[in-house]
Design brief:
CATH class of the largest domain: Alpha Beta
Strand content: 25-35%
Strand order of the largest sheet: 3-2-1-4-5-11-10
Largest sheet: 7 strands, mixed
Order of helices and strands: HHHEHEHEEHEHEEEEHEE
CATH architecture of the largest domain: 3-Layer(aba) Sandwich
Number of domains: 2
Helix content: 25-40%
Radius of gyration: 18 Å
CATH superfamily of the largest domain: Vaccinia Virus protein VP39
Length: 244
C-alpha cells in the first residue's frame, strides 16, 4: 500500500480544524461577495468548488441561487459537507489532478491556497489540464493562492500556538522551493506529528503552468478586497484565468 501524502492525513485530522479555528469566515464570505460581483455570473451558472473542505464556501456560493458542486480529497471533509447538500449543492470525494467525466462548469474556484500541495510540480499542470477539460466555453477559473514571495521573505521560523488546551509547536523552513511546516503536539497522553508542504509558487511560475495548460491570466488581485497585486506587499495572489 502506498504511503499517504501529508494532505491526506493532516486534512482528515480533527486537529487541523483545531489549529485553524481562528480563520476569518466573515472575511472569506466578503471575498466571495466581491469576486461574484466582479464576475457577474448569470442566473443558472454552474460552479465547481475545487478542494472545498467542509463545504462552507460552496454553501455560501449556492445561497445566491447557483448550482454548485464541491469536491475534496478528504473523505471526512466531504462527509461533513454532505450535511449541507440540497438540490443545487452536492459534494463528493475527488482528486483535483483527475478529470471529471460528464460534468462541466462555468466557473471553477480553487480557494484559500489549495494549489501547489503536491510533491511534483508536474502535478500543477495536471490540475490545470483537468480544469480545462470540464470548463465551459468562456468559463473562468479563480485561483486564490498565498503570495509566496512575501511569505518566504517574512517566514516565521518557529512559534508556539495554544488552541483548546493543546500546545502546537510549529517550525517552518523553505527547502528546494517548498515551504515546509512541521507541527508537533501532545493530546490525551499521545504525541502527534504532521506536516504541511506547499510549493513556493510566485506569479511568474504559475503563469508558466497556465500557459502550458492553455490558460491566460487575465486579472491579478493582491487581497480579498480585490486591490491590485504587489509582489512584495500583497498578502494574496488571486488570479482570474480564461482559456486562450
Amino acid at each position: 500500500m502506498l504511503e499517504k501524502q501529508w494532505f491526506e492525513t493532516w486534512f482528515d485530522s480533527p486537529y487541523y480544524h483545531t489549529l485553524y479555528d481562528h480563520r476569518d469566515f466573515a472575511e472569506a464570505d466578503k471575498f466571495i461577495n466581491k469576486i461574484l460581483s466582479y464576475l457577474s455570473p448569470k442566473l443558472g451558472s454552474t460552479f465547481l468548488d475545487l478542494a472545498c473542505g467542509a463545504g462552507r464556501h460552496s454553501k455560501y456560493i449556492n445561497s445566491f441561487g447557483y448550482d454548485v458542486i464541491g469536491v475534496d480529497l478528504s473523505p471526512k471533509s466531504i462527509e461533513t459537507a454532505k450535511a449541507l447538500s440540497n438540490s443545487k449543492l452536492n459534494f463528493f470525494v475527488h482528486d483535483m489532478r483527475e478529470k471529471l467525466t460528464n460534468k462541466s462548469f462555468n466557473y471553477v474556484f480553487n480557494l484559500f491556497t489549495s494549489f501547489g500541495y503536491f510533491e511534483s510540480q508536474d502535478d500543477n499542470l495536471k490540475v490545470l489540464t483537468s480544469i480545462k477539460s470540464y470548463l465551459e466555453p468562456q468559463g473562468k477559473v479563480i485561483i486564490d493562492f498565498m503570495n509566496a514571495t512575501k511569505v518566504v521573505n517574512n517566514l516565521v521560523a518557529s512559534e508556539t500556538v495554544i488552541k483548546q488546551g493543546i500546545t502546537f509547536s510549529i517550525e517552518r523552513e523553505v527547502i528546494k522551493d517548498i515551504i515546509n511546516k512541521r507541527i508537533s503536539f501532545a493530546d490525551q497522553g499521545k504525541k502527534f506529528y504532521f506536516e504541511e508542504r506547499v510549493q513556493a509558487l510566485n506569479l511568474k511560475k504559475i503563469t508558466k503552468f497556465c500557459n502550458k495548460a492553455g490558460f491566460s491570466i487575465v486579472k491579478v488581485f493582491g487581497n480579498y478586497e480585490l486591490d491590485e497585486f504587489n509582489e512584495d506587499q500583497s498578502d494574496r495572489l488571486i488570479m482570474v484565468l480564461e482559456e486562450k
